[in-house]
Structures are given as structure tokens and as C-alpha cells.
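Help needed: design a sequence for this.
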């Protein structure tokens, strides 16, 4: 009889504990959502190379020193002794030609320089 009574009580013992797990979290009444930030377009930088494809870069700078291809990105690196230019190309959509979306530039010693100024050194030859 004791075992039978335990079997009848056992399911009821766990229910209050499980009910406590489903309690909803209610934010305080004074909660105000954070202000909306600037639109995403505010973070896009303009530059002479953005939007260029690999063929255009090769015409402008010659054969890249590095051409690294990964699943979603292609990195082309150009160097001319005065600066090193890294161009990152991404495809806007599947099947589309990858284009430059980000550019980094530095001196051969590693100091950051303006990408537009670095690109201009190729025209100065």
C-alpha cells in the first residue's frame, strides 16, 4: 500500500517545480528601448576601389602579390615598395562577380596609410 500511495503522489510532487521553470520575465515598467543608431549606410566608406572587381584591380595594379580565396571572400594584395594594399572582395549575391567592399593599406614597415593615397602611388610611377 505504501508503494501504491507513493506512485500516486510522485507525479504531483514534480509539477510545482516544473511550473516554476516556465515563469515569464517581465521588464520593469520604466524600461525604454535604446535610441535607434545611424543607418547602416552611415558606416559605408567611399573610395576609389570600392565596387571594383578583380580584373579592374589587376589592370590598375598589375599581378597581385597574394591571391587568397576562401568560401565567401577573396583577398588580393598588391605591393609596390612604397605601400601594401589589401583589397577584400565579396559577392553581393550567389553567382555575382565579387567586388571590393573593404580596403586596407600600410607601408612596408606596417604603419597604416590612407588606401586612396596608397592606390595613387601606382599612378605616380
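Sure. Designed sequence:
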Amino acid at each position: 500500500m505504501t508503494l501504491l500511495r507513493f506512485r500516486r503522489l510522485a507525479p504531483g510532487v514534480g509539477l510545482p517545480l516544473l511550473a516554476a521553470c516556465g515563469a515569464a520575465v517581465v521588464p520593469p515598467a520604466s524600461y525604454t528601448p535604446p535610441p535607434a543608431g545611424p543607418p547602416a549606410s552611415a558606416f559605408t566608406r567611399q573610395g576609389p576601389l570600392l565596387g571594383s572587381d578583380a580584373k579592374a584591380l589587376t589592370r590598375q595594379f598589375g599581378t597581385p602579390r597574394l591571391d587568397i580565396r576562401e568560401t565567401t571572400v577573396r583577398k588580393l594584395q598588391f605591393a609596390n615598395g612604397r605601400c601594401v594594399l589589401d583589397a577584400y572582395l565579396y559577392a553581393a549575391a550567389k553567382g555575382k562577380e565579387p567586388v571590393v567592399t573593404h580596403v586596407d593599406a600600410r607601408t612596408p614597415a606596417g604603419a597604416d596609410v590612407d588606401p586612396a593615397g596608397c592606390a595613387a602611388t601606382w599612378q605616380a610611377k
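The chain has a mean pLDDT of 77.
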